[in-house]
Amino acid sequence: xxxxxxxxxxxxxxxxxxxxxxxxxxxxxxxxxxxxxxxxxxxxxxxxxxxxxxxxxxxxxxxxxxxxxxxxxxxxxxxxxxxxxxxxxxxxxxxxxxxxxxxxxxxxxxxxxxxxxxxxxxxxxxxxxxxxxxxxxxxxxxxxxxxxxxxxxxxxxxxxxxxxxxxxxxxxxxxxxxxxxxxxxxxxxxxxxxxxxxxxxxxxxxxxxxxxxxxxxxxxxxxxxxxxxxxxxxxxxxxxxxxxxxxxxxxxxxxxxxxxxxxxxxxxxxxxxxxxxxxxxxxxxxxxxxxxxxxxxxxxxxxxxxxxxxxxxxxxxxxxxxxxxxxxxxxxx
Amino acid sequence: xxxxxxxxxxxxxxxxxxxxxxxxxxxxxxxxxxxxxxxxxxxxxxxxxxxxxxxxxxxxxxxxxxxxxxxxxxxxxxxxxxxxxxxxxxxxxxxxxxxxxxxxxxxxxxxxxxxxxxxxxxxxxxxxxxxxxxxxxxxxxxxxxxxxxxxxxxxxxxxxxxxxxxxxxxxxxxxxxxxxxxxxxxxxxxxxxxxxxxxxxxxxxxxxxxxxxxxxxxxxxxxxxxxxxxxxxxxxxxxxxxxxxxxxxxxxxxxxxxxxxxxxxxxxxxxxxxxxxxxxxxxxxxxxxxxxxxxxxxxxxxxxxxxxxxxxxxxxxxxxxxxxxxxxxxxxx
Lengths: 333, 333
Known about the structure:
Number of domains of chain A: 2
Strand content of chain A: 15-25%
Largest sheet of chain A: 6 strands, mixed
CATH architecture of the largest domain in chain A: 3-Layer(aba) Sandwich
Distance between the termini of chain A: 40 Å
Number of strands of chain A: 14
Number of helices of chain A: 8
CATH class of the largest domain in chain A: Alpha Beta
Oligomer: homodimer
Order of helices and strands of chain A: HEEEEHEHEHHEEEHEHEEHEE
CATH superfamily of the largest domain in chain A: Dihydroxyacetone kinase, domain 1
Radius of gyration of chain A: 19 Å
Structural class of chain A: alpha/beta
Helix content of chain A: 25-40%
């Protein structure tokens, strides 16, 4: 294992500490328990939005804390759910009296710990709603999840729900928007290489020099099949085909196309993937109205990519375009 | 070699093609010869800024084309200089009558080809000035360069010169600002792993499982020394120590601290590096007034990091803060 770390035990606190200094114009960090929160939290009368989950997927979630997106992020240990304690603390820190939305990726540990935290916060008089994200079409029901997994589509849920909260929507409306985004986004990914969790010290799985894993999870969970390496265009056809089989588009509909790097993928490869994905959508008469290409939901240094497609309508497009100011996503201010 | 590509010969054109579709609100691409240009170029009366160099360092340079930064970028083959031809074409495409600045990283091929292109453009009546970037303190004079190499500090030169051009400075003034930034920025990097150039198919060098290369170049050129892996804090002390030895700071001076990932480095590691670098600067009484953390000048999938420090003054800080709207750097609009 070669990593730019000190003690594996301190990876998350040191990274969060550095993040908070680098982005002190936007966020502050609490280190006991660990969470990252907008520096202007709580905002009176605004619905607060909290997300979180295991670390190692950066910039998800702390990179999305700021104006127009999340109010707080709760990073657990690498690839491990945060406990209820920091989730409760983050929820309290962002409660401005209008309630708090939890955006939770669909992993058993995350779901349970956010549920417990929501109950504890409710006992303290904070109204909490929760939306579970489960955009990964690759597999259903596994060792890690009942149902589908939540992956890169989470970024789109967080951005659009964040814009709704920022414009003043109430808790039920923000939760409804988040639910709507989740219902209209699908994702599938591929891994070319595994990654090494610092406290494990070994790759969580192995792929031969000519093998790739189609439908990989963001913790290296198994996907649909392990195949021989193919040209990028063939891989894109597999991933996007699975996405569009699960959520067909009619000609003339608008899509947001997200090509997400897994952390170790060169940017030229992401744009080669994007190019073919955009072509396939155009061939089917789908308008790629908005695009996002980069590392947004990663698996440490894993090489690979996921393709997400969100079916847009005017409301979602307007909320996507609304100003956002976070470490990892910024426009309009 | 496992990469998300089709034919290695088409890596650059396919990636540029995808980039231009994804960011069609900001840029357009020409494919014969290949360059990326602001969609509103040429801007009458504004100094045009062109940069370029071998591909494989993305987002450098095409990711920095847009309002407040570059007017055009010329990507060569992976790790190989573009020929004069596309540089001339890009120079003509951005000439709004106020002249064009070439920002050139200090590699022999880049310098020669940009010089030739400048001569050809001048013969066509375009006033061209050139600034060479040579911020890498690691080595001097090598197989690749006379003098020092140009690395991640290039991003800071491009941003700040771009802001000067956008506010209406004339060619001499924009060139002077670029020269000033180059004179005040220093960088040193480290590699944990090598990268594979697509048309080569093999790593350009090898490192043992416990070895790192201190002072690595962005094409994998040798650095100062190959050592055993150390804790991140010790590596940061080496890199930042070399930078500050070369450009001492007085207590109370302001710095911009750039922690740049080489492409395959997990974001948690970049922030662990940033944290210690910021601590060291604080210990020396230097104020980290601005920060930038992420993948900005990469070497494909290489794992590693570089640390750049720019000595700020009020003028440079104001130009850094000015609005920018590119694929890879955006704020203020």
